[in-house]
Amino acid sequence: RRFGKTLNLSMLRSFFEKPKAEKETEIEQRRTLFFGLAIEASKEVWDHFGKYPVMFLTFKDVKTNTWEESVVKLKELFSELFTTHSVIQEKLAPCNWNHYSGETKSGIRKI
């Protein structure tokens, strides 16, 4: 059960994710995480540092008693992700946007 999956995904997120705002301190703090590692020597790889929206989802918070409750919790998590990364919504084809933009009776956005 403990193979470092979340740690590995967190590392990828720290490398690729665009900063929420162009905060030089955040960028430099994240950059220092990779100092002294083999990745530091590759300019080609560094060209991708902090350039992409990253949707990070962990199932550790999806602790429910039924399948139906799990589906509701997952919909909430996905809704939060799409709200956080609204730039992705802008790039969706219109047919996909309708799929992600509606709301259910409970106020949770459809997935």
Write a brief structural summary.
With 111 residues, the chain is mostly helical.
Structure, described:
The protein is mainly α and 111 residues long. It has helices at residues 5-16, 24-32, 43-46, 67-84, 86-91, 94-101. Mean pLDDT is 79; it is low at 103-111.
Distance between the termini: 29 Å
**Major sheet details:** none
Order of helices and strands: HHHHHH
Alpha-carbon Rg, integer: 17 Å
Q: Determine the oligomeric state from the structure.
A: single chain
Give unreliable regions as ranges: 103-111
Overall average residue pLDDT: 79
The amount of beta strand, in percent, is under 5%
Instruction: Indicate the overall shape.
Output: globular
The helix/strand class is: mainly alpha
Q: What descriptors fit this protein?
A:
single chain, about 110 residues, 6 helices
